[in-house]
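User: Fold this; C-alpha cells only.

Assistant: Input:
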Amino acid sequence: MHIKELGHVVLYVSALKRSANFYRDLLGFQEVYRGDGVAVFSSGRTHHELLLIEVGGEPIRRGHPTPGLYHIGFKIGDSPKEAKQVYQELKEKGVVIVGTGDHGITHSIYILDPDGNELELYADVSDEWKQNPKAIMKPVKLLNLEEKI
C-alpha cells in the first residue's frame, strides 16, 4: 500500500452554523452541502477535504498538550507575500492568531477554529525538501508578519 495524499479531515463541532460559517466565510472553503447536522467543503481539488459533524458540547480548552490531534495544515500560497496578505486579513477580521513560524520551507500562521482546533495556514516558500527531506526538521525561527505589504 502507498498513501497518495491526505484526502479529507472530519471534525466533530459543537455548533454547526458557527463552524461552517468560519470555514466558508473566513477560510474560503467552498461549501458543497449543509444539512442534517453536517457540512461538507471542498477547495476544488477533490470531492471534499473537510466534513463537519455537529455533536454539541463545549469547545476544546487548550492547555497542556494531551494525546490527540495537534493541528491541521491548510496551504494558502507559495510565497512569503501570500503569508503576509493572509496574516493581515486575519488581523483585520479580528481572528486570534496563536503563533507564527518560519519553518524554512514554509511560513506558517496558527489560529484556532470556533471549537478550539488549531489550524496552520501556510505558504510554501522553498522546495528544498524535494532534494533534502530532512529540511522539514529545521529549527523554527521567529516570523514577523506585522509589516504592511
